[in-house]
Amino acid sequence: MNKYIGVLKRTQMFAGVIDDEISSMLSCLGARIKSYKKGEYVLRQGEHLRDIVVLVDGNLHIQKDDYWGNRSILGQIAVGELFGEAYMAPESSALLNDVVAVEDSTVILFDVRRIITTCPSACRFHAMVVQNMFFVISEKNKRLVQKLGHMSKRSTREKLISYLSEEAKKQNNASFTIPFNRQQLADFLSVDRSAMSNELCKMRDDGHLEFDKNQFKLL
Length: 219
What we know:
Elements: H1 5-9, H2 19-28, E1 32-36, E2 41-43, E3 51-65, E4 71-77, E5 82-83, E6 98-111, H3 112-116, H4 124-151, H5 156-171, E7 175-177, H6 182-189, H7 193-205, E8 209-212, E9 215-218
Antiparallel strand pairs: 1-6, 2-6, 3-4, 3-5, 3-6, 7-9, 8-9
Helix pairs in contact: 4-5
């Protein structure tokens, strides 16, 4: 598990905590490591979460399937990001969505109760982790607002413009890579894949953008 100290140090959860302290805190926070193959469920809708999940290798999607199998991708978890902070309250309801590995992935699980309860030594680094969790929740709320902004657009083109513009600004470059393939992007924006692909081609022909698979350039 110590080989992932470098990844953990770059997470918001451990911001400001030095390597040696992270190593000693792994036991304090009840850390456990798990690996998943592509397509496996890390978490399932209806489960009651007792851990914070930190991705240290691979790629995860937060998604939801309806009764007929129609899928919506609500978000992506990249290396160094975490999931489960919204379920930290003792009486939190069951998970509303699935978390699925879209490639072979490894996560570290941290016991929620040990995170929110300061250890007997009351080390300042544990207090920093608790403080950092508030920042994580704030950042996740901002992303939710951004996604709602994309979804509030009426047409497929407007949703694409909203999402691609946001990605270009986030990556500070007119040329950028998105974390979704075509079907995943359609599921994320809740649009029909064929209609979305047609709209992308029209936007390319109109001189608004260029693209190759998941690489885009706004013109």
